[in-house]
Every structure is written in structure tokens, then in C-alpha cells.
């Protein structure tokens, strides 16, 4: 097993571990669907934070298929800054709605707050490690800044579906239903990890090819 494969396996292991910890806490401490959503809400904020940092850390990037005010922008520092700020505003506003919903309907306290903090820390370490490797991979090629901006929203889909469908459904009030949802969400995390890896791999291959043609 080479170093890249080993690091990738470590990332997957820590991601599954963070999700597994959330499931264990939910089962052992009898969490409701609302408390579980707080854990995933925290993960989404962490993803948004590192996604913005990654956009700002780009040295060279592509803007193919990406438009600002109906025009494809040039790959400049100004474009990078505008994209990062737009992402932060839109992603943050998107989650402000989730926060309002969760704060009104599900308010954790006491032990649950401590457990949620532990889950958030585990997700933080996982995404921080992935962020460092993403930065290294981005430096080898030209990542599409538009793709990079939209990737985090795919992580929000499981939570979005839960709010729309699960919050008022009796199924989410049962342990099997809740665990089933959490397993589906874990699977979505695993899948997105592989999607991001493929995008990074293609960017690296593109960078090597362009450098050889200089």
C-alpha cells in the first residue's frame, strides 16, 4: 500500500469513525431525530469552513462552465475572492434556516451538548486532515473553482431530506428508522469522499499533462 492509498484509507476510516460515534451516541443515549440533526448541522458548518479555505488557497484553477453575472470569469485572485465570499454568504444563509428550525424545535442541553461537542470535534479532525491533502492535490493541477464551490452542497442533501421528510414522519421517531437514516447519511459521506478523490485525481493528472506540454 503506497502512501497516498494509506492516507486515503485513514481519511475514510476517520470519517466512518465520526459517523459511527454519532450512531452509537444516538442509540445509547436515546437521541431524537432533532438531536441527530444538530450533529450533522455541525458537520455541515465544518465542511463549509474548510471549503471556503480551500477556495482561497487555490493558486491555479479553471473556471470552465462557471459564470458570474452570466459571464465566465478569468482565473484571477479577484475571482477566487468573490467566489469564496459568495459561497460563504450563500452556504451560511442556507444553514441559517436550518439553525432557526433546529433551535425552535430541538434544543439540546446538559449531557447532549457535551456529546454533540465530542461529535463535532471528531468531524473537525477528519475534515481538517482531508483539507490538508486536498490542498496538496490542488497544487498539482488546476481544480475547477465552480465544481469546488458546489461540492459541499451535496453533503447537505441527507440533512435536507431529513428536515423535509423525516421531521414530521413517525418512522424517524423509531430507533430502526433513525438508525437507517444515519446509515444512509454515512453512506452519502463515504460516496462523496470518493467523488472528491476522483475530482482531485483528475486535476492532478491535468496539471501533470499541462506541465509536460510547457
Key attributes of the depicted protein:
mainly alpha; two-stranded parallel sheet; 79% helix; transmembrane; DUF6498; transmembrane helix; membrane
The low-pLDDT segments are 207-214
Count, helices: 6
Number of domains: 1
The radius of gyration over CA amounts to 19 Å
Strand fraction equals under 5%
- Give the end-to-end Cα distance, rounded to a whole number of Å: 32 Å
Give the overall silhouette.
Answer: globular
Helix/strand-derived category reads mainly alpha
Give the overall pLDDT as a whole number.
83
As a percent range, the share of helical residues equals over 70%
The largest pleated sheet is described as: 2 strands, parallel
Along the chain, the helix and strand elements come as HHEHHEHH
What spatial order of strands do you see in the largest sheet? Answer: 1-2
Can you walk me through this structure?
This protein starts with a helix and ends with a helix. The longest helix has 38 residues, at 175-212. Strands 1-2 form a two-stranded parallel sheet. It contains six helices and two strands, in the order ααβααβαα. With 214 residues, the chain is mainly α. The chain has one domain (3-212). Helix 2 (33-57) runs antiparallel to helix 3 (77-105) and helix 5 packs antiparallel against helix 6 (175-212). The chain crosses the membrane at residues 20-42, 86-105, 111-129, 150-169.
Amino acid at each position: 500500500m503506497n502512501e497516498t492509498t494509506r492516507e486515503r484509507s485513514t481519511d475514510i476510516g476517520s470519517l466512518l469513525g465520526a459517523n459511527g460515534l454519532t450512531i452509537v451516541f444516538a442509540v445509547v443515549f436515546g437521541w431524537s431525530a432533532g438531536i441527530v440533526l444538530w450533529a450533522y448541522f455541525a458537520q455541515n458548518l465544518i465542511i463549509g469552513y474548510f471549503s471556503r479555505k480551500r477556495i482561497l488557497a487555490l493558486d491555479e484553477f479553471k473556471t470552465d462552465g462557471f459564470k458570474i453575472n452570466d459571464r465566465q470569469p478569468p482565473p484571477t485572485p479577484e475571482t477566487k475572492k468573490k467566489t469564496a465570499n459568495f459561497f460563504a454568504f450563500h452556504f451560511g444563509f442556507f444553514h441559517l434556516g436550518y439553525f432557526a428550525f433546529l433551535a425552535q424545535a430541538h434544543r439540546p442541553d446538559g449531557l447532549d451538548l457535551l456529546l454533540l461537542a465530542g461529535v463535532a470535534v471528531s468531524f473537525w479532525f477528519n475534515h481538517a486532515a482531508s483539507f490538508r491533502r486536498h490542498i496538496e492535490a490542488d497544487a498539482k493541477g488546476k481544480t475547477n473553482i465552480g465544481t469546488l464551490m458546489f461540492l459541499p452542497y451535496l453533503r447537505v442533501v441527507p440533512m435536507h431530506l431529513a428536515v423535509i421528510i423525516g421531521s414530521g414522519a413517525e418512522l424517524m421517531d423509531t430507533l430502526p428508522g433513525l438508525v437507517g437514516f444515519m446509515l444512509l447519511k454515512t453512506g452519502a459521506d463515504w460516496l462523496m469522499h470518493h467523488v472528491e478523490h476522483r475530482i482531485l485525481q483528475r486535476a492532478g493528472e491535468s496539471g501533470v499533462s499541462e506541465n509536460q506540454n510547457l
